[in-house]
Design brief:
The chain is an alpha/beta fold. The chain contains 5 helices and 20 strands. Strand 10 and strand 11 form a beta hairpin. The protein starts with 10 loop residues before the first strand and ends with a helix. It is about 15% helix and about 20% strand. The strands form 4 sheets. The chain has a 9-stranded parallel sheet with strand order 1-2-4-6-8-12-14-16-18, with no helix packed on it. Helix 4 packs antiparallel against helix 5.
């Protein structure tokens, strides 16, 4: 509880411990800029006290046991740049309030129980845009414990000592921030200036459904997008051709169908690409960077074909089934035709009988029957 006496706490890193209880609700978070609680055993909901941390730049609570929904008050964190909540048990949909976090450059909600449709308003978040860095700067001064002082169990007689360089820390600057983010199928640590140019969304291993919003293709500065292991359906948006800076695009293990848009060859920086285990069909692009991807990028799509897969698109077993409509009989039309035929037959027989019985009108009836016969034949 003595944490609550700290008045200007800016950087708090308690990551990779075995804490089970959340930080005290009385903690003064008005000056808090970086909060790292990753890799503990925290339970319950996302800390409500953080709704008052308007200066927060990094919120890292990955790999805990958080439950409930992403809170709607998340929109109050207007300076947030790194929102990392992956590896928990969060559920429900992504609240539209998250779209108000325009400064976010890294969003990790992977490995949760999130579901429903993906909000199209995510394109309002400036992932990777240079505007993101105008107001929030991450400096290169590192935080560390001094090697001049041994660490020991806390007691009144011994206490942790901070490097003197950090004690002279200027409140107008920031510590060097380090953020872990999964891209290109591996976890990477981004620090300092490199961190300023990295941006990405990781929503993998959830239960999102419905089509991928076309608006996601408007995130022209994003560098990594991972939507794998969900339940997305529909087509791959052609608007993804606008992702000019993207280096990693993973859409594998979904229920996407249709063809891989040829427009994706415009993603010239793309080095990691996967649409494996979907329901895609047709010819895969065979130009530019798509010539560098191996078969693992496309496995699990038996209807895909192309030179890179050594599967001819002329092979009936490899191309998409014909979309031509199958002509089926119309019961109403058949009934009408047979009724009309029967009517003419009855009329012919009746006319013939009258012709035999009434010789006075035989000549006129004969002409009438002949006329009917001609019409029927036509």
């Amino acid at each position: 509880m003595s944490f609550c006496k700290v008045k200007e706490l800016s950087f708090l890193d308690l990551s990779k411990n075995k804490f089970t209880e959340t930080i005290p609700a009385c903690l003064n978070v008005s000056s808090l800029r970086y909060l790292h609680l990753e890799g503990n055993e925290f339970t319950g909901f996302v800390l409500k006290v953080l709704s008052e941390a308007s200066a927060l730049v990094t919120l890292d609570m990955r790999n805990n046991n958080l439950i409930g929904r992403i809170p709607s008050w998340i929109s109050s964190l207007s300076n947030l740049r790194f929102l990392l909540l992956g590896g928990n048990q969060l559920e429900g949909s992504i609240p539209p309030q998250l779209c108000y976090l325009k400064n976010v450059s890294m969003l990790d909600l992977s490995s949760n129980n999130l579901s429903s449709f993906l909000p199209s308003c995510l394109h309002k978040v400036l992932f990777g845009s240079k505007i993101t860095f105008d107001d929030v700067t991450v400096w290169l001064n590192s935080y560390e414990w001094s090697s001049d002082y041994p660490l020991s169990t806390y007691s009144y007689e011994s206490q942790l000592q901070i490097d003197p360089r950090v004690e002279s820390y200027d409140a107008t600057t920031d510590y060097e921030e380090q953020v872990e983010f999964i891209t290109k199928s591996r976890s990477e640590l981004y620090t300092g200036k490199v961190l300023k140019y990295m941006s990405g969304i990781n929503l993998s291993f959830n239960n999102f459904t419905g089509p991928i919003p076309n608006e996601i293709g408007f995130l022209s500065d994003i560098r990594a997008l991972n939507l794998s292991h969900n339940q997305f359906t529909g087509f791959i948006p052609t608007t993804f051709s606008n992702l000019k800076q993207i280096e990693c695009l993973d859409l594998s293990h979904n229920k996407l169908n249709g063809q891989i848009p040829l427009e994706l060859i415009e993603m010239t920086f793309l080095s990691k690409f996967s649409v494996a285990f979907n329901n895609l069909s047709g010819k895969i692009p065979d130009k530019k960077q798509f010539l560098t991807f191996d078969n693992s990028s496309y496995e699990g799509n038996p209807l895909l074909c192309g030179q890179l897969l050594r599967e001819s698109c002329n092979n009936s077993s490899s191309i998409e089934p014909s979309s031509k409509p199958i002509i089926e009989s119309d019961p109403f039309k058949d009934t009408f035709v047979w009724s009309l035929i029967a009517s003419y037959i009855v009329a012919f027989i009746a006319s013939f009988i009258i012709f035999l019985c009434c010789t006075d009108y035989s000549e006129r009836l004969l002409m009438y029957v002949r006329a009917k016969f001609v019409v029927f034949s036509f």
